[in-house]
Amino acid sequence: MCTGAAARPLVTALAEGAARSGTVASGRVGGRLREQRARAEADRLLLAVPAFVASATAPVGLRPSRV
């Protein structure tokens, strides 16, 4: 989780990456980044990036046999 000016580089990188990939129209990125820059300057920017971790084990009957 990042707040204020510390969040700006990550917000910028994510937005530019989305524009490069075509996920977001590049014309929308500039306006959105200006809005987020203003929020950061007012210390009203919060960025939370969720991370998911999963782990599993095969049931005993489905495990490969060991030699």
Describe this protein's structure:
- With 67 residues, the chain is mostly helical.
- The protein has a domain at 2-47.
- The protein contains 2 helices and 2 strands.
- It has helices spanning 8-21, 26-41; strands at 2-3, 46-47.
- The mean pLDDT is 88.
Give the SSE map.
Blueprint: E1 2-3, H1 8-21, H2 26-41, E2 46-47
Antiparallel strand pairs: 1-2
Helix pairs in contact: 1-2
Question: What's the gist of this structure?
Answer:
With 67 residues, the chain is mainly α. The protein is 45% helix and 6% strand.
Defining key terms:
67 residues; mainly alpha; 2 helices
- Amino- and carboxy-terminal Cα gap: 47 Å
H and E string: EHHE
Sheet with the most strands, sense and barrel status: 2 strands, antiparallel
SS class: mainly alpha
Number of E strands: 2
Strands of the largest sheet, in order across it?
A: 1-2
Query: What helical percentage do the residues reach?
Result: 40-55%
Shape summary? elongated
Extract low-pLDDT stretches.
none
Over the alpha carbons, how many angstroms does the gyration radius reach?
A: 20 Å
